[in-house]
């Protein structure tokens, strides 16, 4: 695959939405519509010593740049690969004595690159960086204040560069980053670690029920043969069949929110009114707010109101306990909350699904897999009723259910979830992604264990217990 190949997509006038991209040929689920390297990207301020500034992998023992002592890298290969991007930054940090915030660093990196290569860095880039939407005029007062502060910091930092720019131009640049920046996750897809600008991706419009998904592939820089090396890049992947001429869409927000909340979020962060089919027809809102039904009887409206208010209070307390890393308290609060929700809210209710998700995550972290597996299963059952069958979040949740069941000793259910997750991730992440590769080896391992279990379950359990004792 060549990074930057745009044979499958083209720019078109998407009417009210402005510019858009559409398919130039028929596409199937899992097809890579295009892949693109970042124009510029930076690691978040909070993770500058924990994430490689070149490949965005999170790992221990990073080496820092001997000159600015700010940038961190896996090794020489990563440092060399990133030098042209870091060179000016390195000088500016040394002269100002300290690195500015992530948005200022990104704005400067973009501008240094614009100076070096102009706003277009490859033949397949469809739009110049400074032609992207900036929405500066749509910013609320708070946002404008932040922007002015950033611009001032920028000038102090950039003054060591060669060329000066107007306040308007730099403000526009910050606006572009704010509404087009793509959040980059670590190699396991578990934590947001940085933000980057991918010009072609910025042309893909939003739909709450999109036909594509975007995934960051960190590439392979560790293979012995350099012929097998690949660059870090985003991939736009089709999640279902797409006909020639159909508009390509991705979702800018998490689908697991009520349509009104998604619309509010999109209005505030991206400055448009979502009129997609799922929002206009409020599809799935009823399931996301559903109440439990037992033997044909429903809880009273007052009871439902009470439990909704209580759930929101609990979720706030749970958040605080999580920030304090008091995980046993998180579990206690979650169990109390679920007890109150039981028989009042349905398993597809978002308030219940959030608690399922946190409980299974924290219990797995505490290595209590047998209890975690039950919550993970109920979370996946709820997600399955709400999400597109090839939703990446559903895939990751299914993987978690597989791992907890497997580690909790439920090999049959574990293997089934792992196979299901593998099927989804083959579409959303592709066979070369690190997570898919992990899943593939888990699939092989659980298949083997399942075979042993079916042949002689007693022998299998005793072997398993012995193996667990060794690891404990
Ligand atoms: Zn690296
Ligand atoms: Zn440096
Ligand atoms: Zn929508």
Short structural description:
The protein has 15 helices and twelve strands.
Q: What secondary-structure arrangement, pairings included, does this model have?
A:
Blueprint: E1 9-13, E2 19-23, E3 32-36, E4 40-43, E5 63-64, E6 72-73, H1 76-96, H2 102-117, H3 141-158, H4 167-180, E7 182-185, E8 192-197, E9 205-206, E10 212-217, E11 233-238, E12 249-250, H5 259-270, H6 277-280, H7 285-288, H8 301-323, H9 327-341, H10 350-365, H11 369-386, H12 392-407, H13 411-428, H14 434-455, H15 457-471
Parallel strand pairs: 9-12
Antiparallel strand pairs: 1-2, 3-11, 4-8, 5-6, 7-8, 10-11
Helix pairs in contact: 1-2, 2-3, 2-4, 3-4, 8-9, 8-10, 9-10, 10-11, 10-12, 11-12, 12-13, 13-14, 14-15
Bound molecules: zinc ion (3 copies).
Domain SET: 7-253
Pfam families: SET (PF00856), zf-MYND (PF01753)
InterPro entries: H3K4_H4K5_MeTrfase, SET_dom, SET_dom_sf, TPR-like_helical_dom_sf, Znf_MYND
């Amino acid at each position: 695959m060549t990074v930057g190949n745009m044979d499958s997509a083209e720019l078109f006038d998407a009417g009210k939405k402005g510019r858009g991209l559409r398919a130039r040929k028929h596409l199937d689920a899992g097809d890579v519509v295009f892949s693109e390297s970042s124009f510029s990207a930076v690691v978040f301020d909070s993770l500058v010593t924990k994430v490689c500034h070149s490949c965005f992998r999170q790992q221990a023992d990073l080496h820092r740049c001997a000159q600015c002592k700010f940038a961190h890298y896996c090794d020489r290969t990563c440092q060399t690969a990133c030098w042209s991007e870091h060179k000016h930054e390195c000088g500016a940090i040394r002269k100002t004595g300290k690195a500015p915030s992530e948005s200022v660093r990104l704005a400067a990196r973009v501008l240094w690159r614009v100076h070096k290569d102009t706003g277009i860095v490859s033949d397949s880039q469809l739009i110049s960086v400074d032609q992207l939407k900036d929405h500066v005029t749509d910013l609320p007062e708070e946002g404008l204040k932040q922007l002015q502060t950033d611009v001032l910091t920028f000038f102090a930092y950039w003054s060591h560069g060669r060329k000066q720019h107007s306040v308007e131009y730099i403000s526009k640049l910050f606006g572009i980053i704010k509404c087009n920046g793509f959040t980059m996750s670590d190699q396991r897809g578990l934590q947001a670690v940085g933000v980057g600008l991918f010009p072609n991706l910025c042309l893909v419009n939003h739909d709450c029920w999109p036909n594509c998904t975007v995934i960051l592939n960190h590439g392979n820089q560790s293979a012995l043969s350099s012929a097998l090396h690949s660059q870090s890049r985003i991939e736009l992947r089709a999640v279902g069949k797409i006909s020639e001429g159909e508009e390509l869409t991705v979702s800018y927000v998490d689908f697991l929110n009520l349509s009104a909340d998604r619309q509010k979020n999109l209005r505030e962060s991206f400055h448009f009114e979502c009129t997609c089919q799922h929002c206009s027809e409020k599809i799935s809102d009823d399931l996301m707010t559903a109440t439990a039904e037992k033997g044909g009887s429903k809880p009273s409206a007052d009871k439902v109101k009470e439990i909704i208010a209580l759930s929101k209070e609990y979720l706030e307390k749970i958040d605080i306990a999580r920030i304090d890393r008091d995980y046993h308290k998180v579990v206690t609060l979650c169990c109390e909350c679920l007890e109150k929700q039981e028989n009042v809210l349905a398993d597809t209710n978002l308030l219940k699904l959030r608690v399922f998700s946190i409980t299974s995550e924290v219990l797995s972290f505490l290595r209590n897999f047998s209890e975690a597996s039950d919550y993970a299963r109920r979370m996946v059952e709820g997600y399955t009723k709400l999400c597109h069958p090839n939703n990446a979040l559903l895939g990751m949740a299914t993987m978690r259910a597989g791992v907890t069941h497997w580690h909790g000793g439920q090999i049959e259910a574990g293997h089934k979830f792992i196979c299901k997750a593998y099927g989804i991730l083959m579409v959303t992440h592709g066979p070369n992604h690190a997570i898919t590769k992990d899943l593939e080896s888990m699939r092989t391992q659980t298949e083997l264990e399942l075979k042993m279990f079916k042949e002689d379950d007693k022998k299998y359990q005793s072997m398993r217990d012995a193996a667990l004792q060794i690891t404990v």
